């Protein structure tokens, strides 16, 4: 990509922290946010846990009328977006038509939509307002309208890689000169559809997920939102903005292999990582660690570990592969954005986060996953991987400032 | 927001819609100006008086064995089959291309909703025992593009966009960027949508059947894009050339004209194509020259990713050397203005 794309704002809202400060504390101290679900009745399923955002009253953030018009995923998004925009103060420096919104979305307003459907199926009248956010593009429209971001409005919907791609695409929109600044990230909320769906595929662990561990049984779902404000480095410096890091490059690809199973050798995952590094102009030896897709499913974790060996060769043992999903749960459409924000925070804290919930060493996962604890690091470059249903793969290169940031 | 894409050409097109299967049937529909919307069966909504753009002439058995077709949802079938037709039209044989250099960027509106409804209905009626696992993978909106990539072996950039009535145009913008950056040699782009009874019931519930959801349609319109030099090198026939792509995300109250102005090109078009709700936005059409207008949604139905079929219709209509402006809009944004030129050459 042409020119350096700077990160000048960060915002996050998850079960592991409802703003940047509380999330940073959870990340750096290794607090797992996975617990019982009460958003809907999880009792029919073998797994009854998730990283659900708790003690959340929309009226703490919105007036009653506004809250009523927003889906749960929209509410998360607006809160996190506002934090990122305020941090960047970007709206004081660019015109509204110079700033855009690049969203990654997943189940979006499905939680409310399925309440409507249940009424229809049971022959009861359901309020139509439950359908207002059934499509994943609704959040981008809500953000654009609330914050007057008029330059571009788009929603990437590639399941679990949506928001990582949306951030890469946001960087692209600036690099190509189409925008001065872009609010980019993702949001997602728990829903019966995804909870029942992953349970039906038998890929939800009944205990908090334990990526790369022996005996892992699958994912723990989560919910939340995270955003970055991106802009060109030169303009950011000219307006006196504080820079927190950079997005030097990214890549997306299709595995063309299977709707749900990853290509088993790791060759396709390795390809997208290599393409991202090439796009960023970064050689593999400069990468300090990798924030894994790391879902905790038996196959995914092995394949991602194999991809690391293919990309980093003998050096793979010295490049920790960590999964923050053991803390945040798998937030699907928001996962990539949450993990990229986590990566920026960790890079600037000089820390490689711990992969929580270790159960034992898996001989097929033979890298350093920081299972024993977080590590100090002077790395300034890390990767964030996101792999999705449909074989959609995304890898984003993130440059932090190290502890001077 | 604007960008210049004058080195990107269209070498293949395909369409499946209420206007028929294949570009010749769509061409005929356009030539006749015949509305292909049909009455929406009364049993879906419990009332009569509505139209829909069902792709009734689409027979999956003409393209795919039943066992394979069973694994795909209707939206994926549209996208997968239209992608194959577009590749054929482009004279692009995957066996002679590098799979990692062929990608797909697709707009998809309600893709995955039909499977989501069927999956959840099983749960609501029978509890966990009523869940059908094989339905779940195709509940995601990217199922259509991903199934097309699996079927045809596209390993290049793969992305799905959903953004109101501009889903296909949003995807086309991404496809062009991937070509500009040399991330791919060929990008398939456009849109795919399917109609499901539950969607229409939802539109009725929201009171949208007399407004934006009137005459909702389905199908897929696919364009094969590549850089001109790549197309020429492989001896492809160039159907059209892409010009500038302009977009505005949201019209700022009180400053709407500024946003609209960003969508207009500098030169007078010979043809204007209207997609989504563009025809219903007076501000967008103000001051536009009195030239021919093409509004394919009136003929085959409107859908969120209808821009794919609309852009294919534009290319079928636009004479060589002539310039067209494709305008796409959604009620709350975004908005797109895209320049097309008929044939291989670009006239300023």
Q: What is CATH's topology name of the largest domain in chain A?
A: Peroxisomal Thiolase, Chain A, domain 1
Category by helix and strand content of chain A: alpha/beta
Question: What do the pLDDT scores of chain A average to?
Answer: 96
> What's the CATH topology name of the largest domain in chain B?
Peroxisomal Thiolase, Chain A, domain 1
Number of helices of chain B: 13
**Major sheet: arrangement of strands of chain A:** 5-4-6-7-1-8-14-13-9-10
Question: Which blocks of ≥5 consecutive residues of chain A have pLDDT under 50?
Answer: none
The CATH class name of the largest domain in chain B reads Alpha Beta
For the termini of chain A, the CA-CA separation is 23 Å
Tally of domains of chain A: 2
Overall geometry of chain A comes to globular
The whole-number mean of residue pLDDT values of chain B reads 94
Instruction: Please state roughly what percent of the residues of chain B sit in beta strands, choosing from under 5%, 5-15%, 15-25%, 25-35%, 35-45% or over 45%.
Output: 15-25%
The portion of residues forming beta strands of chain A comes to 15-25%
| Multimeric status of the protein | heterodimer
Low-pLDDT ranges of chain B: none
